[in-house]
Each structure stands twice: as C-alpha cells, then as structure tokens.
Amino acid sequence: xxxxxxxxxxxxxxxxxxxxxxxxxxxxxxxxxxxxxxxxxxxxxxxxxxxxxxxxxxxxxxxxxxxxxxxxxxxxxxxxxxxxxxxxxxxxxxxxxxxxxxxxxxxxxxxxxxxxxxxxxxxxxxxxxxxxxxxxxxxxxxxxxxxxxxxxxxxxxxxxxxxxxxxxxxxxxxxxxxxxxxxxxxxxxxxxxxxxxxxxxxxxxxxxxxxxxxxxxxxxxxxxxxxxxxxxxxxxxxxxxxxxxxxxxxxxxxxxxxxxxxxxxxxxxxxxxxxxxxxxxxxxxxxxxxxxxxxxxxxxxxxxxxxxxxxxxxxxxxxxxxxxxxxxxxxxxxxxxxxxxxxxxxxxxxxxxxxxxxxxxxxxxxxxxxxxxx
Length: 374
Fold this sequence. Notes:
By secondary structure, the chain is an alpha/beta fold. The chain folds into three domains: 18-115, no CATH class; 117-199 and 349-374, no CATH class; 208-347, Trna Endonuclease, Chain: A, domain 1. It is built from 15 helices and six strands. It has helices at 2-24, 27-72, 76-79, 83-95, 101-116, 134-140, 146-159, 163-171, 174-179, 184-193, 223-232, 234-241, 288-305, 324-331, 350-373; strands at 208-209, 245-254, 262-270, 275-285, 314-321, 337-344. Strands 1-6-5-4-3-2 form a six-stranded mixed sheet, sandwiched between helices. Helix 2 (27-72) packs across helix 5 (101-116), helix 6 (134-140) packs parallel to helix 8 and helix 11 (223-232) crosses helix 12 (234-241). It starts with a helix and ends with a helix.
C-alpha cells in the first residue's frame, strides 16, 4: 500500500512539473506575463511622475507663501532677515528633513523665477515639464541670469539630461558658448526654445570643452592620444557635441590613391539634420592644408556614402588653435558645410564668458537704437 501511495505521489508531482513547464512555454502564458509586467511598469512610472509633479507644486507653493508673507506679513519685522532661518528650524521640527535654509531659499527662488519667466521652458503654477525633477531645478537655480535659467530648463527637457549631465553642461558654460555665436534675437530664442537645430551652423561649439577626457593641459598632446581619449569617453563627447548625434565610426578609411592613407578621425550622424558629420582632430594650429583635406573628405562622402534622403555632410576641423584670417581665406569659395573650431582641455573662464555675452547684448541694443534714431 505504501509503495502504491509513493508511486501515486511521484506521478502527481511529475504531472505538476509537466503542467508547469508546459504553461511557461506557451505563447499565451508569455503574453500574460508581458501584459502584467507592462501594467505594473506603467503604474510605477505614472506614480513616480505624479509624485514628482506633486512635490514640485508643493515646493512652488511653499516659495509663494514665503514671498507673500514677506510682502504682506504683519509681523514680518519680528523675523526680519532671519525669516528663512526661523522657518527652517520650525518646519524641520514639525516635518523632518527637506526644509533646510538652503532648500527654502531655493523654493523661494523657484517661485520668483517662474513668475518672471515668459518662456515655456520653466515651471508655472500647476504645470510641470513631466521630466525635470527638484534635483534638476536645484542645479538650474544656481544660475542668476533669467535667460540662462530658462535655456537650461528648456534644453534639459529637450535633451533629457540626467542631473549629472546638466551639471556638466552648466559647468562648461554651454549657454554662453552657444549664445556668443548668435545675435540678440538668437540669444532670446535660446531661452525660449533651447538649442534648436535647423541648419549646420546650429551644431557648432567654439570652443569645444573636452575636460572630461582627463588629458593634461601642459603636455604636448599627440593627435592619437586625443583621439583615443575621445573614443574612450564617447558618451561624454556625444553630450558635448549636442542633440541628435550618433556615433558611426572611428578612423573611417577613404579608399583614395594618395601618398598617405586617408582616414577621418571620427564620423557621426546627426538625425536632426539628417547628415553625416566628419571630425578631424589637430593637435596644434589648424593649417590651410587641413581645411583642404576636410573638403576632399566631404566631397567623397557626398558622392559615395550619403544615401537617399541624406542632407549634405558637415565637416569640422577641430584644433587646439586657429588663425581666423587663415580660416577665412582657406574656406572662401568652398560650397561644402566646412567649419573650423577650437577645443580646450579645461573648463572655460566663467567671468570672461559672462562679460563677453553682456557686451554682445549691450552692443546689439546700441546698434538697434542707432538704427531707430536714423
């Protein structure tokens, strides 16, 4: 009897295992698992977005309350300039962490900046971007210029930067580097739209900041070492290049019968412009021969590589230095989209860039007034 019960138990166990195995391999079961997984992941994402929106709105309203109290509070003289300090102490006692003096000051600034901002790139009451978190805003609000603040908010949303990536872009003074290549209207457009890529010139940086490569500034740099460092830190280099770039090839060989092998250092594709972007690295001063060589590469890509629907390729000769007069005469008459830019291995001087941008905007205003007076 015991033997029969044991055999029966084994048979039932084998049946359960067989059924379980069979169930797990059917397309219907796989679809069920995928459907439940998608449902849960969507719910989690929705919950996270809802919590983020509620948190941002709460911090915005907290800033609003502080500003309204400062303007209308009947007993504000009791607190005076110590209002934030007293609030930080009392709110922390009642609510716990998250209400330090620094955080409350940023909440206040969060409200004030959103009131002043006329762009769609920043937070407004009851409305969030859906992507930016409070950590993003804490980085953005470190800036003081309303145009700069609006640009980073809009560009961060457009490019889906992480907080780390946003921090790096602000450290490298991206807004100022782009703005210095635009007129006043172009600078205002940056604040409203972010870095809107419509033509080849829109993807240029001058200089390109390559501090992420970790190369020593004092050392006489070999092109091969710079190339290797950029490939090794490709993700950071793509961030510096801007939106729409995808990596295609390193040391792309061009099969032409010349004395020396023809290789393009780096080839990318920009899906916003729908074109190949060729980058040639030069360790020192860019020479006119370098520009001619890039022009040849562009002609080859235009004829042999670009496919149907591709726009004309863009070439960037990237050197440690350049002579603007040499560049002017060397590129004169060239119909290809060929540009020469500088790179630097350290973060730019913040005060100098701010001063240059302020002078550009001031001169633009003077020119406009003179034109109006005439």
